[in-house]
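Data availability (excerpt). The following record was deposited with the supplementary files.
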Amino acid sequence: MTTVFTRITVSILTLAGVAFIMPASAETLFKIVTVKDDIVVGLNDAELNELGGDAGGIAKAIAAKGSLSLWQYAVTQKDGERMVAPLQKIGVLANASLRVEPYKQPFKVVPHQ
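Predicted structure:
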């Protein structure tokens, strides 16, 4: 189920490039939908638990804190295999309307650092 709170503006904080460092925790992907665009972000188990464990918790955290720093994910290809990997660290700012929803896709997900 999706939760609607406030529209966000995505502000790129740093350009980290595509990282292929594999930490021990699993990665869960979410799509943040605004009137203007969509962005896929990933959280590891510890980050997800800290924010409430689901899409609703992430939306509440963005609304309550005003902003969150998250890893943006994108489909990439390495050695002929498609995967979803971290692209860059971004800032998500609360603004007018926001929807956060779980993001399912068929590719391997590479965890962020």
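Summary of structural features: The beta strands are 3-4, 8-14, 27-33, 38-44, 67-78, 81-94, 99-102, 108-109.
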